[in-house]
Design a protein that fits this description.
The complex is a heterodimer of chains A (315) and B (277). With 315 residues, chain A is mainly alpha-helical. In chain A, 74% of the residues lie in helices and 1% in strands. Chain A is built from 13 helices and 2 strands; from the N terminus they run αββαααααααααααα. Chain A is globular, with a radius of gyration of 28 Å. Chain B is an all-alpha fold and 277 residues long. The radius of gyration of chain B is 24 Å and the shape is globular. The chains are: A mainly alpha (315), B mainly alpha (277).
């Protein structure tokens, strides 16, 4: 046996545990860097998530000690007329706002997609309301719609469109559509930005090839823009539906559920149950129901989205 | 030839007119709220003419607008600092290290996006009470940090992944620990990502209404949105709209300025989020 061989053998033998301990040290360091994330997610997300299920099977008053009452909080839900009504109202609101908002946002995105003088200003102008907080925007519109200080009646009377002041949030339908106008004002620019990122990822050569082939701009829109924008549109749909089903600020502040409790959303009922009727247990049960519906909906939408992708990719 | 030039000119004019009309429509409410906050209104703190009467009224409303501004600023500062710290450490860990439970933790963080706000805030109301954080701006900030994490962690992981490995390895060969490399070299390289994360955290925590509405019940701890909302609620019958709009202006102005200054960083946040989504 030559000394050289044994030397290299010991080196190899020594290097393996060295590498293993390096990997272990890397892994420990990784855990160290991720620990703050794990603590925040664990304590302020996973723990309350578990707690909401536990609360939902208890009689849990705002003050006083909870006691197990499964399944009362759940079986009482169908009797909660306010909640049942709010489900229908929220669905109706979601359907209308999703369609109108995405149509407006798509129109805005098409208007400002080409680079020309002034486009930067327009993009900023359309987006600017999105920088204002949603609650602040609702308070702003609360003044805007008031007959006392609001400018709308004066303007519309001035150009002769109306004769008498309008009660902008006075009837159920007026309240709904006035709120939808607020939501579009606040979020259209936001959706426009998302659509613009999608539009800009479509290669310009496609449009040039279509023009060479004699396609009109409408045909190019139908055959190139719309199909290639489907993933982006699907993302918008997911965001808009999820956001609208959880609507709170806009109705809580602007219409306050009025007139005649006609504009009460699901989350408003949950809030009311917890902090006006002091029944955290049944509020938790309602939240669990909303959670389950939302997760199911998201899974469904993602699945449809994925199927879309696999179908459109080979072609 | 002439017809095509003419039609192009017509289309250009159409674009300008439509674009400008829409811009006026979108900017009008903002301009109006500023104007009506200084315009005189009989029965308000600014009964006639133009002036800052509504703002003076706001300054003395409740605990005084300064208290609410300080509360909002404190919550925002803690949220921005906390989100930056947690996501800059976590993003580095997720981009460069492998450790047990890594994917599970990442999925758990993204799951925050799936869970309704109300579903998590009802139990948080109970939980913060048990943790001694009821009615606390620190507790509120911790909740905001949690809500920011999915976006922030995703953003920072991508930012660290985009940094060339050689940069980090050079520092490590020079004898730096990974922490020293993170602090001295990498943080500088991911600065654009940090600005985007900070901007999103700022806008979200400054503006949020639902979380402080539920978690803060002591009026001296109200943040701006809840304070202005309580002003709208308190005045039965005679709502002081001028003061309300003054409150809106005070809330909106910092956000508008921050957005106009950091617009590019905001849009980049969208690109990473939207294109990957």
């Amino acid at each position: 046996m030559t000394p050289g061989v044994s030397h290299s053998e010991t080196l190899v033998a020594r290097r393996v545990p060295a590498r293993r301990s390096l990997a272990r040290s890397r892994s420990l360091q990784g855990i160290g860097y991720a620990t703050p994330t794990a603590v925040i997610v664990g304590v302020f997300f996973l723990l309350p998530l578990a707690l909401v299920f536990w609360m939902s099977v208890n009689r849990w008053p705002l003050l006083g000690s909870p006691e197990l009452n499964f399944p009362d909080n759940y079986t009482k839900i169908p009797d909660n007329q306010l909640f049942v009504d709010s489900v229908w109202f929220t669905l109706k609101y979601t359907a209308i706002v999703t369609v109108v908002l995405s149509a407006v946002a798509f129109a805005l995105a098409l208007l400002v997609q080409e680079r020309r003088p002034g486009v930067g200003f327009l993009r900023t102008a359309y987006f600017l309301p999105g920088a204002v907080g949603f609650a602040a925007a609702a308070l702003l519109f609360y003044g805007l719609y008031s007959n006392e200080i609001g400018p709308l009646d004066g303007i519309l009377q001035g150009i002769g469109l109306i004769d008498e002041p309008i009660a902008w949030t006075g009837t159920p339908n007026a309240a709904l559509f006035s709120t939808i106008a607020l939501v579009i004002w606040r979020f259209a620019g936001f959706q426009m930005l998302i659509l613009l990122t999608g539009l800009q990822s479509i290669p310009l050569e496609l449009y040039e090839a279509a023009r060479v082939d004699g396609a009109t701009s409408w045909q190019a829109f139908r055959r190139i823009t719309v199909p290639l924008m489907r993933p982006t549109l699907a993302l918008l749909l997911v965001l808009s539906i999820t956001g609208s089903l959880l609507a709170f600020d806009q109705f809580f502040i602007l219409t306050q559920g009025q007139p005649d409790n006609s504009t009460i959303t699901m989350v408003m009922v949950i809030y009311r149950e917890a902090f006006f009727r002091f029944n955290l247990g049944s509020a938790a049960a309602l939240s669990v129901v909303v959670l389950v519906v939302l997760v199911a909906l998201n899974v469904l939408q993602l699945r449809i989205l994925r199927r879309d992708r696999t179908e459109s990719e080979p072609s | 030839m002439t017809t095509s030039t003419a039609s192009r000119a017509a289309r250009g004019a159409g674009f300008n007119v439509t674009g400008a009309a829409l811009a006026i429509l979108f900017l009008f409410p903002l301009v109006w709220s500023g104007w009506s906050s200084v315009k005189g209104q009989p029965g308000s703190a600014q009964p006639s003419g133009f002036g800052f009467g509504n703002y003076r009224y706001l300054a003395s409303y409740g605990e005084g607008v300064v208290t609410y501004m300080v509360n909002s600023a404190a919550v925002t500062a803690m949220t921005v600092a906390g989100t930056l710290l947690v996501s800059a450490l976590g993003g580095y860990g997720f981009a460069r290290f492998s450790f047990p439970g890594k994917n599970l933790l990442f999925l758990a963080t993204l799951a925050i996006l799936m869970v309704p706000y109300a579903t998590i805030l009802i139990p948080l109301y109970v939980l913060l009470d048990r943790l001694g954080l009821q009615n606390s701006l620190v507790g509120l900030s911790l909740v905001f940090i949690m809500f920011q994490l999915p976006f922030a962690l995703f953003m920072m992981r991508n930012s660290f992944e985009a940094v060339p490995r050689e940069l980090e390895e050079a520092a490590l060969v020079d004898g730096c620990s990974t922490f020293a490399a993170w602090r001295r070299v990498l943080l500088r390289a991911v600065r654009p990502g940090l600005v985007t994360v900070a901007l999103f955290a700022f806008l979200a925590s400054w503006n949020d209404f639902f979380a402080p509405l539920i978690l803060i019940s002591d009026a001296s701890k109200f943040t701006m949105p809840v304070a202005v909302y309580s002003m709208q609620q308190r005045s039965f019958g005679a709502i002081d709209y001028g003061a309300l709009e003054a409150g809106v202006v005070v809330m909106a102005l910092p956000c508008l300025l921050a957005f106009l200054l950091l617009q590019r960083h905001y849009v980049r946040g969208f690109m990473t989020g939207a294109l990957r989504g």
